[in-house]
Amino acid sequence: MKASSEREYWIATLQKIADPVLTSLANKQLKLLMPVEAHPHVRDREDYSHLEAFSRLVCGMAPWIEHGPDEGEEGLLRKRYAELIRKGIDAATDPQSPDYMNYSSGMQPIVDTAFFAHAILRAPVELFEKLEPEVKSNVVKALKSTRDRKPFFNNWLLFSAMTETTLMLVGEDWDPMRVDYALKQHEQWYVGDGVYGDGPAFHADYYNSFVIQPMLVDIIEKMSNQSGDWKEMKQPILERAKRFAVIQERSISPEGTFPIVGRSIAYRFGAFQHLAQMALQHRLDSSLMPNQVRCALTAVIKRLIEMPGTFDDNGWLQIGLCGHQPELGEPYISTGSLYLCATVFLPLGLSEEDSFWQGEEEWTTKKAWSGKTISIDKAL
């Protein structure tokens, strides 16, 4: 597949994932139309699943919405989605809307309000500045409404920090302590070679990519100038992030598969949000060519998205890694959770002239397992 057609494939795949969520929400019918598949013994996921679907999807789409083209077929499509998302933000944050979402009850909204905040951080013009004043006010109220619950003592600290970072970005009062606590604790939880523990213990899973590294990088990027000690933390955080992206790229097999390790595997290719973000931000290690990362990610996307059963008959994602595998849904997983997969599409925020989208290049394992030259790997 040529690089230009790969970008088209990414956009078409993102469309397929996004359309049911965004069109339903723009029409204030998401709660009416979205199925909520969940663990058979869990009864509360309908309280949370709609915010999960919207916030996680938009978190992945945001760089394209903010930086994608204005002209041509892609430009028209981007503008259409930007408008749909702004309508969705209105519907999701207006207390009078039938699709008003839950920010204030239970623990799960701490998570998904933060993904919503991360989307705004990634696209402040399109997803905040262009909102009507009343909608802006509703968004701020939604973000602040999570403050009356404390996050768990693990990666959840970053959710509170991300929400405060976005409040700072949009000119609202924010709490430095929530940011400081998350940054300092993750410094304590760093276990070496570019990897953080998820709380005091190391977990062999993809949470360094689902949450920890992307949020740490974006929080420190926005906040380092707010405090001298945060400024000193920035370079080590970025060096670790660069190393972890190397590990991620090397975990993609020649066939576009990856180790099925740890919880939340039903987030599918959301497992590579971090690698996608490092490509977006031009922060890849010198051993990685941007186009080899694109080719590796494309192989993963194709391997998973084209498996029958990934979508139901109405186009909604179903629980599973490769097709419909409901047994892979932990008790906190429901239909909305699955839309974290959209974070693999972050590099659509790069112009089609960027080196990421230029030419073909085999990724590390594809070269290695066909006897070609690769670089020796070494720890940070």
What does it look like?
The structure is a single chain. The protein is mostly helical and 380 residues long. The protein has a single domain, classed as Glycosyltransferase, CATH 1.50.10. Helix content is 52%, strand content 1%. It is built from 14 helices and two strands; from the N terminus they run αααααααααββααααα. The chain has helices spanning 3-26, 30-33, 49-67, 72-93, 108-122, 124-129, 133-144, 157-169, 176-188, 207-223, 228-250, 273-280, 290-305, 364-368, and strands spanning 190-192, 195-196. A two-stranded antiparallel ribbon has the order 1-2. α3 runs parallel beside α5 (108-122). The radius of gyration is 19 Å and the shape is globular. The two termini are 34 Å apart. The relative contact order is 0.15. The model has no long low-confidence stretch (mean pLDDT 97).
Q: Indicate the CATH class.
A: Mainly Alpha
Largest sheet: 2 strands, antiparallel
- Architecture (CATH level 2) name: Alpha/alpha barrel
Percent helix range? 40-55%
Strand portion, in percent?
under 5%
The end-to-end span amounts to 34 Å
Give the SSE string: HHHHHHHHHEEHHHHH
User: Got a strand count?
Assistant: 2
Quote the average pLDDT. Answer: 97
Total discrete domains: 1
Count of helical stretches: 14
* Coarse morphology: globular
Radius of gyration: 19 Å
CATH topology tier name: Glycosyltransferase
What class do helices, strands and sheet pairing give? mainly alpha
Q: Which spans have pLDDT < 50 for at least 5 consecutive residues?
A: none
Q: Order of strands in the sheet with the most strands? A: 1-2
